[in-house]
Specification:
The protein is about 45% helix and about 20% strand. The chain is an alpha/beta fold. It has 3 domains: about 70 residues; about 230 residues, Endonuclease Chain A (Endonuclease, Chain A); about 160 residues, Endonuclease Chain A (Endonuclease, Chain A, 2-Layer Sandwich), CATH 3.30.870.10.
Length: about 500
């Protein structure tokens, strides 16, 4: 009888023991995962302390989900093969470019002394120098940009190179496609490189097949699929907008190949952008960036496009082309922006659709305002990313207290990324003032010095300002606590956006 009772007790105890053992295993796995991920984050060679702290907080609060998100989006890794290919492309193209350096030496910039530190920093952290003799034409209103680019492609006689993040199969996209097809059919070398994620709808349409059939070389950059997750991050994208025609005309800026109505996000339309048409020696650096990306996507080398420098012009603009990305220095754009903010003495005006900078860059911006520099930030009132919009607003209070004027654009989604310093120095390109653009995506920026062009760009910024509403200081600082709670909670994710 005693034996029967013992066996019964043992039988009842077994599930409890197993359950307790499973709890211990789960606890050990929980702690082990957290410790392993903490070590992984702390051993990262790149990144800032606030970024590491944000990832650590996420993983501690939601360990399994946080660890999965970190493995998918936490590092700047683009895969060993891609990194090796980029290094090879960069070295190869750099070697070709040095062949024309003697021709470019005569195009020395004439930058005023007070702004030379900006370009010294840009040269130190980048791999290009400012070149004089460039002529720039600004396109920021209406659809004059599309008409002019189509005209340039129509007049092309030797080559057309186009790189864009988004290429839509809409009215503007089809106009571009028709122009590229016509150019290829008359014997022009036409190369089109699009981002695999940004242009995925176009890549699935009939446009690529029609263009390829006519002789246009169409390729996608950074292919993304679940099978590639183990080898490279899928969210590191090529966000550049570059066009080089006949090695003589260049384009760069914020505009994708899409109509302002932007069918994929029509609720926020029109999308307001600006582009720059360039002639002069700086085109050589734009061509180099395109050829590097083309080599990454196709393994094809085309040294013939860098064997002779672009013809110099009588332009007045000193211009530096800055290419950044996850395989470049993480602080390149950060350092250039901070130096611009510190160099400002009279006025600093910026426009960006996404404002989520790192702490040091924002501190430099606030310091400019506190020194008495008129500092103006123009952002869209309605943003296509609700989380980024809330995170942006979490920065408003500190900016306002420092004296920064914040204006919210109401005539669409202001997508132009511009900066003018003291009506002399300017920056315009594809990079937003957020961590994704400044640290992760492949971007291109034009940094220049020319009072005439800077004034034109400032005039465009003033037109944005006319369609904006200033953020009222008293009202914002006295906003209800639920709104402040939501914005500040989103702001905690700023280092991860």
């Amino acid at each position: 009888m005693g034996s029967v009772l013992l066996n019964a007790d043992t039988t009842r105890t077994m599930p409890v023991v197993i359950e307790a053992s499973l709890d211990l295993l789960l606890l050990a796995g929980h702690i082990g995962l957290i410790v392993w991920m903490l070590i992984e984050i702390l051993l990262r060679k790149e990144g800032t302390s606030d970024t590491r702290l944000a990832w650590i907080t996420l993983i501690v609060l939601v360990p399994y989900l946080g660890a999965l998100v970190y493995m998918l989006f936490g590092g700047r890794w683009i895969g060993k093969r891609r990194r090796a290919l980029h290094h090879a492309a960069h070295e190869h193209v750099d070697l070709m470019q040095r062949r024309v350096s003697a021709v470019l030496e005569e195009q020395q910039p004439s930058i005023p002394p007070q702004f030379r530190p900006i370009f010294d920093i840009a040269s130190a952290v980048g791999d290009t120098d400012a070149l004089g003799g460039n002529s720039l034409q600004l396109f920021g209103q209406g659809d004059g940009f599309a008409a002019q680019v189509v005209a340039d492609i129509t007049a092309a006689t030797s080559s057309v190179h186009v790189l864009t993040y988004i290429f839509l199969d809409d009215d503007t996209g089809r106009r571009f496609a028709d122009a590229l097809i016509a150019a290829a059919q008359r014997g022009v070398d036409v190369r089109l490189l699009v981002d695999a994620v940004g242009s995925k709808r176009m890549l699935r349409s009939t446009l690529p097949a029609a263009m390829r059939q006519a002789g246009v070389q169409v390729h996608e950059m950074l292919p993304a699929s679940p099978l590639r997750v183990a080898f490279a991050r899928m969210d590191l994208r090529n966000h550049r907008k570059i066009m080089v025609i006949d090695n003589a005309i260049g384009w760069a800026g914020s505009r994708n190949i899409a109509s302002p109505a932007f069918a994929v996000k029509a609720a926020f339309a029109p999308w307001v952008d600006c582009m720059v048409r360039i002639t002069g020696p700086a085109i050589d650096d734009l061509q180099r960036l395109f050829l590097e990306d083309w080599f990454l996507a196709t393994d094809e080398e085309h040294p013939e496009f860098l064997q002779s420098a672009a013809h110099s012009t009588a332009g007045c603009t000193d211009l530096q082309v800055i290419g950044t990305g996850p395989d470049c220095g993480i602080d390149t754009l950060h350092q250039i922006l901070r130096t611009c903010f510190h160099a400002a003495r009279d006025e600093l005006i910026l426009t960006t659709p996404y404002y989520v900078p790192d702490a040091a860059t924002e501190l430099a911006l606030r310091n400019a305002a506190m020194r008495g520099v008129r500092t103006v930030l123009i952002v869209p009132r309605r943003n296509d990313s609700k989380l980024v919009s809330l995170a942006s607003r979490s920065h408003y209070a500190d900016l306002i207290r420092a004296g920064v004027e914040i204006h919210e654009f109401e005539a669409g989604l202001l997508h132009a990324k511009t900066m003018v310093v003291d009506r002399e120095v300017f920056m315009i390109g594809s990079a937003n003032l957020d961590r994704r653009s400044l640290e992760l995506n492949f971007e291109v920026s034009l940094l220049g010095c020319c009072s005439q062009f800077a004034s034109e760009l400032r005039f465009l910024q003033m037109s944005y300002l006319n369609d904006s509403t200033p953020v009222d200081t008293a009202t914002w600082l006295a906003q209800p606590w639920p709104r402040r709670l939501i914005c500040n909670a989103a702001g905690l994710l700023s280092p991860l956006l």
